[in-house]
Structure formats: C-alpha cells, structure tokens
Write a structure and sequence with these properties.
This protein is mostly beta strands. It contains one helix and twelve strands, in the order E-E-H-E-E-E-E-E-E-E-E-E-E. A five-stranded antiparallel β-sheet has the order 8-9-5-4-12, with no helix packed on it. It is elongated, with a radius of gyration of 17 Å.
C-alpha cells in the first residue's frame, strides 16, 4: 500500500495481518514506518492509502510459529507478492491435500497437527496461482524459502 501521512509524505507498506481491535480503515503500522509519516508520540494520525503493485520478486518464505510441532501446526506465508488465499498440507507426497485455517494474525493452522516432522506445502494466491514447497520441516520458529514467488 502507498500510505500518505498528514504532511503529505508517503511510505510503501505491506499488509501482513489484521488488527481485530482496530476500527475500519485503520492501519496499524510498524513503528519505523509510522516514524516516517509523523512523530511516533502522536499515536494516531490522519492518513490516506491506496493499493499499489507489490514489486517483490524474491521467493516466498514459510515461517513456523513458536510451538509448531507434529501435534500443532501454525505457518505463515511471508514475502508474497500477491495476496494468499489458502495454505494446504500434504503428508503423502502430494496425492492428497489438507486445508488449514487462516487466523486473524495471518498464520494458517491445524490444531491437531499432521503427526509428521516434514510436510509438502501448497500455497494458493487470490489469483489462483499455486506454489508447492516439498519436504518442509515443521520445527518451531524455523523458516523455509521457496524457489519462487507468484508471477
């Protein structure tokens, strides 16, 4: 997004999650981004924003949330240049895929886990494109960089 602050200065920011406690049309910016628009002591400032092309060309990154294990699965897709619609997991080399549930904090979860240490992951964008990453470890707080991003 292109975000314009009260003085007309602009930043480009990526939407990474929802802010369930925030009101409509409210952006909760990272402190460094906010500081480029106004003094952070102001807390809340008037802004305007527009969606702009993302421009990311580096591969997506899969990040396991703290606590992820064979018995509880929680993974986030980072660095995506198109909005992510779903994340599915296969434990049988891609013959079948199991859905996960997206949480407001932008992690995809399965509360029962998948009972294995490695899974294949299929990420689908809102435009219908897919990226499959094979043999992804589900160790807590680890990341895996895919071979590509959406085109």
């Amino acid at each position: 997004m292109s975000v314009t602050g009260p003085s007309g200065n602009k930043i480009t920011a990526m939407v990474v999650d929802q802010c369930p406690g925030c009101g409509n049309n409210h952006l909760d910016l990272f402190q460094a981004g906010f500081a480029r628009l106004a003094d952070i002591s102001r807390g809340i400032i008037p802004i305007s924003w527009d969606f702009v092309p993302c421009g990311i060309t580096s591969p997506i990154v899969l990040k396991n949330k703290s606590g992820t294990s064979p018995w509880w699965f929680s993974m986030q897709v980072q660095n995506s240049n198109i909005a992510v619609a779903s994340l599915e997991v296969s434990t049988d080399a891609g013959r079948t895929w199991q859905r996960t549930q997206r949480q407001p904090y932008n992690f995809f979860e399965n509360s029962a886990g998948f009972r294995t240490d490695f899974v294949d992951v299929r990420v689908t964008s809102t435009s219908g494109q897919t990226i499959i990453v094979r043999n992804v470890s589900i160790v807590s707080e680890t990341t895996r960089t895919a071979a590509s991003n959406f085109s």
